[in-house]
Amino acid sequence: MSSVDLTIPAPVLESDEWQPNSYRRFFGPHRSRYCYMTGLSPEADRLSEAELNIMFHFAPVLASYELPLEWKFLALAQRWKRDTMFASAIPIVVSHPAYRQIIELGSEAIPLILQDLARESALWFDALTAITGAQPILPEHYGDIDAMRDDWLRWGVENGSFPERSHCSTAD
Amino acid sequence: MENFPNPPIQEAILDIFVSVPGETTLEKLKGIGLSYESRFPVKEERVKLLSGFQFKPTGETSTTTSRQVAGYLFRSLPADAKAFQVRLDGFSFNKLRLYDGWTKFSTEAKEIWLKYRSAANPTLVNRLSLRYINRIEIPLPIRDFADYCPLFPNIPAKLPQKLISFLMSYSMPLENPPNAIANIILTFEPPLPGKPVLPLILDIGVSVPFGAPDNEEGIWSTFDSMRESKNQIFQSSLTEEALKLFR
Fold first, then answer.
1. Chain B residues within 8 A of A68 when measuring between CB atoms
2. Angle at B196 between CA B194 and CA B197, to 5 degrees
3. Residues B218-247, mean pLDDT to the nearest whole number
């Protein structure tokens, strides 16, 4: 009997990456985290945010169910990033309840955090240290988010929590 | 169709989505920017993030995420407030406020598209899209939103007549051009303190499948038709009271 692939492709979210400095320099301070299609104006952002808010509405619900770890992590991470999007004080960012819940997920969350960190330089450093007890950031790298990220990704490769090929800086 | 001297257009976007052959590279597309360095001196990468979940019959789930450079964005100096994007999946031309008319907008878009077409050598034009994002500042106080915009949500009388936010989205088929679809999205921004206006954001997009990439005349006559439909939607979506704001 031949097997049938019943894999259901799930909805895919596509977005352009935030480019805050260049945008602010050029068109003003209103750029939000996501773009809507190919639009560049603050109004295009507003529309995009309104649509994403509908999606984010479900994030806390997802996080409260017994779901696979990946789901739970993504829902919590989305909520954390959404709520702290405009926060500049690090203590506020890392004391968000969703961030603390991610820490409570424990060592199984480490590969997911490192994957997220490889994609964007979010402030995962406190969570990584809280879970692992490690502190791989070189003293001269403090304050340089990209360098701090690379130190953690290198730690991930060395400790088998992150695939070497996933990040160019650590693969070299 | 009436031309308004003070249109509320915040951004006009003309998109041509294509399929390109394997030999078309990002490096080739990047070269287009060199031809326009004086008019569009700022270059940025367009990065696409893709993420999703999969459910499998075994109960297993998987998540996928990827980040890739999809093309480049070239911006003008701020005074001109325009940009063009060259990607492996298409070309876009953006004009931000102040919009100075269809003729100028489409002529410049066409000029750069021809350069893109020559570099990318598309095998298919999948879709044409024209999108206008309007910001309509309704003076407050108002008696009824419907005095300005019939698309505004009708809140049942027994509920509080206040809104924190709303987002309405309509998609409808159009006859002109054939097979076109209009996407209309309406939302608002909370009024700013000291500024007694309610900013409504009315986004009108028209898109249509196309086909052969060599029908250059067809592309631009289709855009002309799409613009006519867009204008009709705009004027039908607002009342005379609102249209007065743009005269």
1. 61
2. 130
3. 95
Q: Give the model confidence (pLDDT) of B217-232 as tens digits.
A: 999 999 999 999 999 9
How far are the Cα atoms of A129, A164, B60 from residue A169, in angstroms, in the given order?
Answer: 21, 9, 31
Tens of pLDDT, residue by residue over A80-127, are 887 787 777 888 888 888 899 999 999 999 999 998 888 777 889 999
Contacts of A137 (CB under 8 A, 6+ apart): A125, A148, A151, A152
- Residues in chain A whose Cβ is within 8 Å of chain B: 6-17, 19, 22, 26-27, 37-44, 46-47, 50-51, 53-54, 68, 70-71, 74, 115, 119
Q: What is the mean pLDDT of residues B193-204?
A: 89
Torsion-angle region of B67 (φ positive above 0: left; ψ -120 to 50: alpha; else: beta): beta
The residues facing B44 across adjacent strands are B73
Q: Which residue of A has its CA nearest to B166?
A: A50
- Determine whether the interchain pair A22/B42 forms a contact, defined as Cβ–Cβ distance below 8 Å: yes
Element (H, E) at B103: helix B102-120
Enter the pTM of the model: 0.66
Predicted ipTM > 0.85: no
Distance CA A70, CA A125 (A): 19
Sign of CA dihedral A81, A84, A90, A92: negative
Sheet holding B167-173, edge to edge: A8-16, B42-55, B61-75, B82-87, B90-96, B9-19, B124-139, B197-211, B181-188, B167-173
| pLDDT at residue A77, as a whole number | 86
Sort strands B90-96 and B9-19 into parallel, antiparallel or unpaired.
antiparallel
